[in-house]
Predict the structure.
Amino acid sequence: MNVFLARHGRPLISITILVLLFTYFISIHPRGLTLGVVTAWSNQGTALALLAVGQTIVVMSRGIDLSIGPILALSNCVASHLVDGTPAEIALGVVAVVLVGTACGTLNGLVVVFGRLQAIIATLATGAIFSGLALIVRPIPGGSIDAAFADVMTWTVADTIPAAFLVIAGSALIWYPIRKTRTGRTIVAAGSLENAAYASGLPVRRAKVLAYALSGFFASLGGLYIGFQTLSGDPSIGLSYTLNSIAAVVIGGTALTGGVGYVIGSIAGALILRTIGSLIFFNGIDPLAQPFFEGMVLLSAVAFGSLRLLRITHRLEMFK
Amino acid sequence: MGDPILELSGVGKRYGGIVALDSVDFKARSGSIHAILGENGAGKSTLMKLLAGTIRPSEGQMKVDGAPVDFRSPTEAARAGVVCIFQELSVIPDLSVAANVCLADPPRTRFGLIDRTRQIQIARRIFADMGVGQDIDVDARCSELPLSKRQLVEIAKALVRNPRILILDEATSALTASDVQPVMRLLRRLRDQGVLILLISHRMHEIDELADTCSVFRNGRHVETYRSGARTDQQVVQMMIGRPIEQIYPQKSDPATFGPTRLLVDRLSWTDRLKNISFELRAGEIVGLGGLDGQGQQEILEAVSGLLIGVEGTVTLHGGDGTTGTGSFALVSEDRKTGGLFLPLSVGRNLTATGQGAFSRFGIVDRKREQAYARGLVDKLQIKVGDLDSAVETLSGGNQQKVVLAKWLAVDPDILLLIDPTRGIDVGTKQEIYRLLRDLAAAGKAILIYSTDYDELIGLCDRALIVYDGQIAASLEGAALTEENILSSALRLGVTSPAMQEARA
Amino acid sequence: MSDVSVTKARPKLPVDGPTLANILAILALLVIGGLQYPQFFSPTYLAQQLQTGAFLGIVSAGAMLVILLGHIDLSVPWTMTAGATVATAVVGSDPQPWISETGLLAGLLVGATIGLVNGIGVAILRIPSMIWTLATNNVILGVLVYFSGYYARASQPSTLMTWFGTGRTAGLPNILIAWAVVSLVVLFVLRRTTYGRNIYMVGTSEVTAYLTRLPARGVIVASFVFAGLCSAFAGMLLAGYAGQSYQRMGDPYLLPGIAAVVLGGTSLFGGRGNYSGTVAGAILITLLASVLSIMQAPEALKQIAYGVVIIVMVGFYSLRDTRS
């Protein structure tokens, strides 16, 4: 049990906080715990949760994806052109959007691995390129996405469970089998000690490219999901999503130092961030104060991590 | 002994203008343990890296089983049956022991996913084969294991690939005494099964005990290959350093010359790692901390340095002028790479890191005085460095350790705390460091040294404190400071017990 | 001159590899720009372009010290805005000469305070700088939005700010002089002071620095304070240049500020880099934007070109490093 807590304590804390916040949110919500309220709540957090899953995988490989928001924006803009019309067209459109996102992610991986660029600067640069492409695809917000399909994705399945829940659960379920492949394990190994992974003959390059490709894949799902909510495309939504995805990963208990990552924790982190926004709204706090509260919550969530300093028994543990 | 399984002809490796290996001809037979000897910088590690596929030769040809090979990666080398156990650990800290053992080629289920059950079985079997099965929890994360256990994982990782040529690059240097024996037995068994084992080690007695054949390298050249036992230690060392060598350890001091107490440790306890430790250290004295690896020796030094939080008991440092609590100390840490040096920075910057006050005023550096300061240290410790501006990582291990020592000696500490200061360093430099430490002690410094090398405890130290499970099990000095007594205290055994005899064998 | 010794002792040139690469790229841009638009070569036009680049240059001077430590400061945008907003509000409340110059001090104080909070979070609370400065940036944003109610209060630059922002001395824009002064200070600090030496050492390995008993925390806090001062100063000069402060005035300087440092050859891992490269990087980014403007490229194309230049140049450095 102690070993379990030591290994999974961080994500458990964020899940607990999410449950507490959600309970409070429901208690102050005028309509209380209804399927509609839960659905609206989960819809709000889905895109960020998807992004957080992708960001976690990259962070596990000891990288970071600053282009994740621009990929989301680009996917969203592409979707606003393609995800409309007959069911077949919609299906093809969805596939095309996912391919675009995955291709962007793969490009990131190739630049990081073969160009040997540091992840921060590489994805900063590709992010600029993807933002530019998003502007070309859709210079100003607009376009259209099939409303009927969007309704399916943003409402409930058989009137029992919000579709968003399934999307989020599905995203986590995609990762776990990948983690049990040799390449997937190499993502963790490369993040933990890259030289050792290489000396052990692991496919480090392939694994890193895969990590970024997966990040692009999840970003494209996020872009699609925003399209389902807004029924349009917007090229300018990237930056805040990038920063929030990193915040979600950190709140979820994953350290930016690589080797260890908690996909479930990051999903909880994303939902925590979104729940805070809703709480401010329903608490009747001056909307002008909302950015301040969001900032303070992020600041305290982040500062929470430094509580570990109180537990250390060796001063060099500070530097871990 | 079998046929030559490995053959090198005219193999060379250059890094820019630097020649690491100079047209080496070399043969080794299957079913033998072949030791590679040489000082640091002799080209041993370069040779091993070529064989393991982490680097490629600039010229010449390598043959395995008579067929020319050109390894482009460690994976290709492993496929040809060449597996290397590196000096730098290649264990992944965040994965389990079992996952690490099966890292390169994990067992899979029919869905192509990694089969954890079989992975655990494989790991258990390998450790049982190695004779250390009961010591290792294959489910633990490697980051939770001490260094010596990680080294065992490293060996298991290589064995699982059924090598025909197994390369050990200082692979036993981190093992504890109790783990070395099973590993040695295992190596002999592998040899008898027809495996070629290439062994790099600085532990001469280990080589005497294990090797069938030895090859000496110097300055990137293959000097000589001889049957084990055909040369005296003296001759071997001479071949390695290219000049005659006197006795390796300097003369010890007369205890009557020891000065006042410099360090007083009284009932020191910390978490569950240190229990009621008391001892004192006097000026002029060199005291060793010994015992099995990870019994708390390092923690004692860290507690004295103030690195540990929540320490009970008292640690008192006395200054050179006899004042209580004002003694200065320097901790020369175990790992030059993380604790001791700024590797990519220049030799000069590393040397001057501790004493910047000596050549600056109001935080502004006087460059001339800075240069003179660094030059002075280089001369004092005879560090072999051409350009103070070259990166310290380009120096040999021995010279790097000298830079670490120099930067601390520059601030003239009363007490010197050292953790394994000669690990992985060649004989010549070792000898220089021993002499330096003895001179420092004679000049009134108090020295506390944690060494994993029993020879060093016996040869260098005036007194050895043997630590067992966070307690001091014995304090040995004078005639009582023998390998037998150290081992018996370290293992908590009677001097004549059979297990003891075996450990010595 | 190479300030940090790299692996091999190379002959010492007045500029290192990345700086040279930047200078070559700058020359190429000048040629391209000149072919499109002959006035491009006129000293007036170039001075005008450099003037807009000076804000970026000052921001990247601060960013450089932080990046040399292996950290990053994402609070640049709202530190700039905060410095400018507070300074212009002080001036606006009482636009007397001399008294109003306390606005400049107030703005610098704001920058230093933000830097102090950043430094404490990173050095003492041990929070990764990327996430901590992201959080402080959001808090400043929140504070500014709340207190200024979505529009800036009485916003007026002081005489000195306007002098810096728009004035000229002997034909040179004063803002360029300000950039040069900041640059000389950074150069001196990095090369000739123990603090500069410590920056390189802490940036190479904080554990080693700690064990070597260097004042590692102090170095980190001081560098974040310096970065905060640079951001706030750049913000106030920008307010002087534009005649007012405004929301989001700092946004266009965050990522280019980091890019200038990295284009200049400084490693984001810390411990390696020369200030001359940062200056060249800032000029390169500025000229790239102005050449594209001359060619009337749309915003989308500017973004793409900007990304491609970073990948090509930084990729070139790292491939060169691997080969040697």
About this structure: DSSP finds 13 helices and two strands in chain C. Confidence is low (pLDDT under 50) at residues 1-13 of chain C.
